[in-house]
DNA sequence: CACCTTATTTGACTTAGGTCAATAAGTATT
DNA sequence: AATACTTATTGACCTAAGTCAAATAAGGTG
């Protein structure tokens, strides 16, 4: 809870061995094609790398930051996953998003310099912390960094619009199908299996995100399984009929763009 | 429908008289504090102004662009309002957002250079068109433009997160209350009345946006009126009890941040 | 002005999904 | 390993919201 405050970050970082650090540099990171260094030269990537903090892995329940904290920088998940949530006035946790490796966190805090959500780790997770003031200085030196940051912001806007589309679709089946397909395609673009993956979030967290009761999520999973659309065993999911799921959950921007009138 | 295609933009523009054009320049625009020129010098603002296209007003049903169109630039509403929507696979119109004066449209298309939604005008509306390639060139000359563009992108991400929070809140009352409060605060920050305004969108459009049936939206309006929370007559809305509405719809990021635990 | 079309409201009925409660299957703790 | 604790599933029941249908109101058009 308090373990990411103040100087602790530096102490975490110093625990990492030099060899491990080398493996984690931007230059050798497998997520580079999704991340900030897109289009940057070796030398530029090195400059970016030099401002990035890499802490020791976070553990389930740890927080990257909390709702209301002063904005320091953006985070990129390198492994694991996190949830972004806020506490509503009834004291309930409302989940606004999940982030997977290669995804940027904290972009919404740039404009007012305050994190509007808390971000907690769902499983053992590594993340890069990119101090924003330094990032901003670098952008004036490195045009492609500037460009890529803007593209990533734009992509985030796009993803959020898609999420709005999913949430406005009424049925529980549509929402869950869209959610699973979203995870699937995100895993795929990270060269992970698009058909078989582990849900790092609980049913309760999925329910909160999709705006349903836990029981509804659970029942919908069961129904999908009965219908042969997927196999589910607790956190382990295997999608058996992507097309049928897409038919259900196809109420999204991207899929509708392909079937554009 | 086809009236914004190709050279038509220029012919529209040329119809504007020189005096009218002067009134519409960025330098004298009342929306400047919300828009791109924030933090820019007089000379820089003039440069920005010179790349902006201002067309003759659009009329209800006109499109700024359509889903699938190649990305040309971003638009800023200067008066009136528009809806952003896509057509789902059942051929239904799904509304993803409404935009008011001072709000930027098309930010989600920067990253892949394709508009993912159609944007149609809800009432007589004026908009500035900012060609993106020229805007991008200007950003390298004008650091504060760069910065402001990023802030606006960040703000858009933030707004979208808020929308996700609203849509994940279950009840029709919560959603409609949040929607009305969102409009209210947006009007307020544009120095318009926060308590009394005109809905430029139809009940059907509100329903589509909030993911409800039209009848539900209509009934919820009626219930709010019975409870004395507002007065509504067709498009005309007068909020009578903002606090009570906020209690209902307070499931949002910003309001929860104030009542932060 | 009369007619037509479209938007909104309201009522009656139905259903998807919420709530409550019990059970089962994992996980963590001692 | 036994215990307690948490998470997920399933059933029974109920309510909010969807659907269908009709009435009303507003706007548009010849």
TrEMBL record, chains A, B:
Molecular function terms, GO-annotated: DNA binding; DNA-binding transcription factor activity
Domain HTH crp-type: 170-243
Record-annotated Cyclic nucleotide-binding domain positions: 58-110
Keywords: DNA-binding, Transcription, Transcription regulation
Keyword match DNA-binding: yes
Residues in coiled coil: none
A GO-annotated cellular component: cytosol
Keyword Transcription: yes
NCBIfam families: PRK11161.1
Name assigned to this protein: cAMP-binding protein
